[in-house]
Structures are given as C-alpha cells and as structure tokens.
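Trying the structure run again after the queue cleared.
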Amino acid sequence: AFVIQDVPAYVMVAGHPAQPRSFYMVGLLRRGFSKGQIAAINRAYKTLYRQALTVDEALAKIDAIATDDEERAAIRVFVDSIRASANGIVR
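Done. Tokens:
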C-alpha cells in the first residue's frame, strides 16, 4: 500500500493508494480486548467509514458509542489517533 495519510489505531488499509478495509479484530483478540470493547471499536469504525459523515461529525457521534469505562478506553485510543493526525486520515 502507498500510504500518504495517517492510519487510525486498529484500522487495516490496503491498495494503492491505501484505503481502509477493516479493523484488526484478530490483533485485538490476541491483545486481550473483551468482546464488548471489540464491538464498540467496530461500531466506531463503521460510524467513521461507513456513514456519510465528516470526520468531525463522526467523532462527535463516536463519543456516544461506549456504554462503560472499558469500552470508552478502547474507543479513546481510536479517537485520539484520529485527532492527533497531522496529515489527515485515510478515508
């Protein structure tokens, strides 16, 4: 893949230029993430990449996804990686 923009945490990209394909569920399972955390990350991924929202709109919507502190912490890494992007994110 030819990556010219930042890739958010948990996201897998492929292609030339790089495009988001999925989030890395196998890696999350190996790292001990709970099913609730993985489901929350999946919902956040779909909100950002599968809905016709701007990044700012998606981030506002993602903040409401988590139902407990464990899920909130997992999503926070995803959101922080997007906000820390200097070059924009792959979309």
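The longest helix spans residues 35-49. Worth checking whether this holds up in the mutant runs.
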